[in-house]
Specification:
Number of helices: 3
Number of strands: 2
Structural class: mainly alpha
Shape: extended
Radius of gyration: 17 Å
Strand content: under 5%
Strand order of the largest sheet: 1-2
Helix content: 25-40%
Low-confidence stretches: none
Mean pLDDT: 79
Amino acid sequence: MEKKPERDYQQELTDKFIARIEEALASEEKGLKWDKPFVFSPEWPRNSFTGERYRGSNVAILMTEEFADPRWITFNQMQTLSKQTKTPLKLTKGSKGGVK
């Protein structure tokens, strides 16, 4: 079985910030004023189960995902919720959830 290369999360986040800055600069060149913040949700990202606010690089990662809802759960928490509510909650491999 072929081993997947490890993801470089710091580089992915850096690339997202650079892309947003480049988009802003391109907009200004066309005479458009850029005033869109990097943060899409006015609330701090938090875990839906525990209510705990995320810290460190998780905050930057989650706040750049362009989701309006600041609540997040882990895959394992989703499985627990599925068992508790007896509702089948499944993700397609590689999918992302959320409300944009």
